[in-house]
Amino acid sequence: MLSSKPPRRKVVPANGDDSADKLDQLLLSSAISNNEDLGPFIRKAFTSGKPETLHHHLRHFARSKESEIEEVCKAHYQDFILAVDDLRSLLSDVDSLKSSLSDSNSRLQHVARPLLSSLDAFVETRNVSKNVNLAIDSVRTCVKLMEVCTRANRHLADDNFYMALKCVDAIEREYLDQTASSTLRRMLEKKIPEIRSYIERKVNKEFGDWLVEIRVVSRNLGQLAIGQASAARQREEDLRIKQRQAEEQSRLSVRDCIYALEEEDEDGIIAGGIGEDGGGAAGFDLTSLCRAYHIHQTLGLEDRFKQYYFENRKLQLTSDFQVSSMTPFLESHQTFFAQIAGFFVVEDRVLRAGGGLISKMEVENLWDIAVSKMCSVLEDQFSRMQTANHLLLIKDYVSLLGVTLRRYGYPIDALLDVLSKHRDKYHELLLSDCRKLIAEAVAADKFEQMLMKKEYEYSMNVLSFQIQTSDIIPAFPYVAPFSSTVPDCCRIVRSFIEDSVSFMSYGGQLEFYEVVKKYLDRLLSEVLDEALVKLINTSINGVSQAMQMAANMAVLERACDFFFRHAAQLSGVPLRMVERSRRNFPLRKARDAAEEMLSGLLKAKVDGFMTLIENVNWMGDEAPQSGNEYVNEVIIYLEILVSTAQQILPSQVLKRVLQEVFAHISEKIVGTLVSDSVKRFNVNAITGIEVDIRLLESFADNQASLFSDGDVDVLRASLAGSKQLINLLLSNHPENFLNPVIRERSYNTLDHKKVVIVSEKLRDPSDRLFGTFGSRGARQNPKRKSLDTLIKRLRDVS
Amino acid sequence: MGAYRADDDYDYLFKVVLIGDSGVGKSNLLSRFTRNEFSLESKSTIGVEFATRSIRVDDKVVKAQIWDTAGQERYRAITSAYYRGAVGALLVYDVTRHVTFENVERWLKELRDHTDANIVVMLVGNKADLRHLRAVSTEDARTFAERENTFFMETSALESLNVENAFTEVLTQIYHVVSKKALEIGDDPAALPKGQTINVGSRDDVSAVKKSGCCSA
């Protein structure tokens, strides 16, 4: 790279020239060692104006190197000659080899050309085969796809939705990506969702149909289930009746019989209960529902379907709650409760067999809603009912409903609570009904003894209430001691007992005898007793009617024992427990009223005869030997009365009545002696009264055979008042009345005032005789003196 | 087909009232018939609403003016004005709520107290699509309709089931009654001016038409 420009001369300072030159050499040496670019150094040499020096150094270097080269060339000349000779020889050999190769290649080409043609044909054919195979595979895939599509269509046509969905899933999963045809793929992408939607709509339609059908099925199912519970209860009742009959026969000893339980026929009971497979007509079909649920699970819509199912079933249940105001609840209640019962029988089945479609908590929620609604309806309907029979009908059906659903595991305590709450109302209505019936029965009474011409009449009116007086069947026609009121009222009370037990039975309360007994007590003591008292106080005309009522009361007392035994039996309480607990006669007021009425009428009758006492000769010269007229009349009347009464009145009642009458007679005698109608009397008259009292006592003695206890002193004691007074007047020492000991023993019934009044009336016969001899001073009568002392002392006491 | 007519051009104008308990679907029946719309919202009608639609009967244009009212008690003050001039009525109950059917008798009495005896009445059981919640059987309703001398159909405003049929049947029957009355009057054009409401004839005419034309769902 010699420059064409003329070189420029520059003068370099002498001192700096050595150090700069050394530095440049070092850098250059380093650059050369490192194989770096020498360009910058060359350009620097020329720019600094010293190219001649560089040329000189380079030429010097070149000449030294050329010397070295000549030395090497001289040493290796021989070797070089030999090498050239070898190369020449090699060239010849290579030419020879080249010719040989060319010949071989020509020969190979000649031989291979047919093979190459075959190869080309082979490759082409293989490509064709590959394409054909691809086409065949594609077609085969399409064929399979079409087969699956055809199968899907067939399943759809046959409504086999699950299989159809499986085919559609298979198409989507296995064939959609493999399908080469974009047209086919687009068609599939469009149709697959459509098919799913179609299946969903179809299945929902089926589910809707099932919902419609299941409501009708539910009502029939509920009625059937409740009917079964009713039949089971009836069988229990029949068995209990047989046991009770056996027990009654044993107690009455009417006839000996060996009681044996008959084997129940199990064929009539549907095995496994309602709704189970094999139940025949009792079964119902969940196929549509399970299918719909399964399809929705397959579609991935399980939760949505579960919610849809629950909400619609809840709506159906709410619809079932509608109580029509056009139809009386008494007519519609069975349908109402049966529909709800059937609903829950179905839900129980769905819960157990539905594969999780509905949860136990959801069923319990529905049940809580239903119980709350049923209780509300019952409260409302019960509050408006005014007939006991209606409450009983509803209660029976509700308790059957409870039994039915308890069997399926639903808690029914709330329903039973409603029934218990209306127990009082039911019994109040029963009492009200019985009050009317008893009033009618009592008003229809003719106060005549009932005539029974045939044994069944006796059985119906006497044996069925256990009011017979003997276990021997009487001869017919049979005249009963009671009138028609007695069996009529007994039937009403028995109906009350049975209705009360009917309400309390199966009401959740196992021990309900105390409740029944309480209400029975109320019926007897408030309703029947009051009705009888009213009858006795307002409708009795004459002694015979009063006597009949007293007789009726005696029979009713025995009937009351039967009532409580009957209530106990129906309530399932052993009789020995009932008989152990004694109770008061509930119809005591009526009995007392009847006896008082009879006594009152008898006293009035006796008073009529007692007016004859006015005919007594109080100052007669002789005592009548066979009694005064009045007492004979009374005794004749009483004899007739007793001969009639003993046919219908029990001895105890008759005794109590006679006691009253005798006490009354005694009071009348004393009253007459005290009254102003008698001014004075003598000893002969008093002796006559004594004879009268003795006649009455003799009559009382004659009645001893009537009383089982033979207690005649009771009747005698009724005459004590008059007897003591007469005894005092006839005594030779009347002043003994002043002695407390003697008075308490012999004159305890006498009143001081009456004694004074009567004593003053006693006139001694000598008074009159002495009156004619007033001038003579006669000896004082000792009895008279004693009597005067008594009068004086008693007057002082007053 | 006849020549095109403007909307306000009609041969007859009939006032038809919708009555029934609240919530039975009166407003949706109206909107379905007049605008082909259904609303799932259960907003109560306030006071009175009305809409119109014209149909063709025997080559005559019949314009229906349909009045919709609230079924609730607090809007009862409008009854007299509401019923005035009505020649047809749709008495609507809800087949899923028995109480709405029980109240039909009261609605019918009120209707007859306020309207002409010749009014055409159709008993309409709506919400028939809710088959699984049905509480009023078709037979019970048909028996009631026959006893009360009314027409009867079950509809579903939701599914457009029988809505068109119910309204067109009422309008057709009204038209027939009016036409029969017109025949008795004669062909005097002055007696039937265009655009005026026509009072229907005697009750016997309506009864005769009803007995022969009674139909059910």
Identify the CATH architecture of chain B: 3-Layer(aba) Sandwich
How many strands, what sense, and barrel or not for the largest sheet of chain A? Answer: 2 strands, antiparallel
Kindly estimate the percentage of residues of chain A that lie in beta strands according to DSSP: under 5%
- Main sheet strand line-up of chain B: 2-3-1-4-5-6
- Topology of chain B as a string of helices (H) and strands (E): EHEEHEHHEHEHH
- Please report the first level of CATH classification, the CATH class of chain B: Alpha Beta
CATH superfamily of chain B: P-loop containing nucleotide triphosphate hydrolases
Tally of DSSP helical segments of chain A: 27
The whole-number mean of residue pLDDT values of chain B reads 79
The total count of strands of chain B amounts to 6
Distance between the termini of chain A: 192 Å
The amount of helix of chain A comes to over 70%
pLDDT below 50 for ≥5 consecutive residues: which ranges of chain A? 1-7, 12-16, 253-282, 768-778
For this entry, what is the oligomeric state of its chains?
A: heterodimer
Poorly predicted segments of chain B: 1-5, 190-217
Helix vs. strand class of chain B: alpha/beta
Q: Could you report the average pLDDT of chain A, rounded to the nearest whole number?
A: 78
Number of strands of chain A: 2
- Named CATH topology of chain B: Rossmann fold
Radius of gyration of chain B: 17 Å
Q: Could you please describe the fold and organization of this structure?
A:
- The complex is a heterodimer of chains A (798) and B (217).
- Chain A has 798 residues and is mainly α.
- Among the domains of chain A are: 199-246 and 284-410, no CATH class; 424-595, Orthogonal Bundle (Tetracycline Repressor, domain 2); 616-766 and 780-796, Orthogonal Bundle (Tetracycline Repressor, domain 2).
- Chain A is built from 27 helices and two strands.
- Chain A has a two-stranded antiparallel ribbon with strand order 1-2.
- The longest helix of chain A has 107 residues, at 51-157.
- Chain B has a single domain (8-179), classed as P-loop containing nucleotide triphosphate hydrolases (Rossmann fold).
- In chain B, 35% of the residues lie in helices and 22% in strands.
- Chain B contains seven helices and six strands; from the N terminus they run βαββαβααβαβαα.
- The two termini of chain B are 30 Å apart.
- At the A-B interface, helix 5 and helix 7 of A face helix 3 of B.
